[in-house]
Amino acid sequence: MSALIKPPGTRNLRLLFKQLHAVRAICVSSKCYADDHAQKPKSTAEHYDIIIGGGGLVGTALAVALGKNKVLNDKRILLLEGAPPFKGFNIEAQYGNRVSAINNNSVELFQSIGAWDYMEERRVKHVKQMQVWDACSDALIKFQDEHFAADVACIIENDLMLDALYAQLADNTNAQNVEVRNNARIEGVQLSVDTGDKYSQVHLKDGKTLTCELLIGADGANSLVRKQMNIDVFSLEYQRRGVVATVQLEDACDNTVAWQRFLPTGPVALLPLSDTLSSVVWSTTIPHAKHLLELSDADFTKALNEAFFKEYPKNGVVVNAMNTLNSIIGRNPDMLRQYPPAVNGVIEKSRASFPLGFLHASSYVCTGAALIGDAAHRVHPLAGQGVNLGFSDVRELVKVLSEAAYAGAKLGDNHYLIKYEQRSLSKNVPIMVGVHGLHTLYSTTFTPVVLLRSLGLQLTDTISPIKNLFMKRAIG
């Protein structure tokens, strides 16, 4: 038997071992591949370069501005809005009670994205002058457009602005890379900076999951995105409410002046809408706001006229100091003061109210996420700066993201997002501190404070360089 069976040679054994090893490697590799795909099924999450959470004025403006930026036109952008589709603006309907005083910077933003002409063709009221005065001392300051190249402000209904922005998104030649998803409520957020993943995740209440390179929180003062960023927030509730209404003027007039009077309970403003209509923003105590909403139309009209024309008690020390100052600077306040048009009625069902407060996030950004608008900051409406600060955020963020894309960097790169934060903070903080200071200063009838603010207001109106600097800050 041994003579019939030859043992394999060394060469044959080596060849056999190599073949067996190759087969085993293929089997192991196939098994690992199969196991890996069995454990990690292919993700079904939809991916976007940028997701904007919140489709209000600021969030929608950002979506349009990003979509129209040539450097970013290859990026997929998604705007998530929890409300149903916007119904549009009806120019035949009565004026809405939600209006904004838009400054020059915001007008330039609208012009750059093609939305301004749309608004101008419908109804925009240009404010040529503003008068602000103190009921406790009659100190006043006036702002006029004749010293500047543009209007003091433009009064526009919020619904018209939103309609103009959506018109840009609906135009097939504009912002084709922007998708709007309505009835899309965010249930949870996982940022890449927390999970270590490449992308952030957005979980919707309908069960869908979205991923993105950059998540932008435009979801208001109670921002879910901001909470997930885990940053400190300084906030104050003023224990005040703003009452808004649309009112009919007693007589038709040019009506291009915005009026604001500081009452002992807070400021009341009359903003022009047309030759016969104005919008009211009345900041006052919570009980008084409730009372104003419960009044009949006739009684509310009477209360509003009293707010602008009533003579309030004045402290003798303040009166003497103001008279002395006016004599020194050669100023006759009675010759300078103008009075707003009388109101003879309020448009039915136009009254509403909203809480007033202050909020500022300690940071606007983190890797893969950024905040804009009320998600980052909230101010008192007395200077009309709230939405303008949000539109300023839009301008700065678009600039930074286009810089990042042009340089080939990731959109969520914190190095670039920090630039946005620094630029926005430099603009927002001085205005926010100033507005908060004015609210605090005019929320008391304490004689030394009334004296200080009255002298300051009168001197500011007299010293042109200071007045012009203040106005430039306020209007753009």
UniProtKB/TrEMBL annotation:
It comes from the Eukaryota. One of its GO terms (molecular function) is monooxygenase activity. It holds the Pfam family FAD_binding_3. Its cofactor is FAD. Its main location: mitochondrion. It is a peripheral membrane protein. Keywords: FAD, Flavoprotein, Membrane, Mitochondrion, Mitochondrion inner membrane, Monooxygenase, Oxidoreductase, Ubiquinone, Ubiquinone biosynthesis. Belongs to the UbiH/COQ6 family. Component of a multi-subunit COQ enzyme complex. FAD-dependent monooxygenase required for two non-consecutive steps during ubiquinone biosynthesis. Required for the C5-ring hydroxylation during ubiquinone biosynthesis by catalyzing the hydroxylation of 4-hydroxy-3-(all-trans-polyprenyl)benzoic acid to 3,4-dihydroxy-5-(all-trans-polyprenyl)benzoic acid. Also acts downstream of coq4, for the C1-hydroxylation during ubiquinone biosynthesis by catalyzing the hydroxylation of 2-methoxy-6-(all-trans-polyprenyl)phenol to 2-methoxy-6-(all-trans-polyprenyl)benzene-1,4-diol. This is Ubiquinone biosynthesis monooxygenase COQ6, mitochondrial.
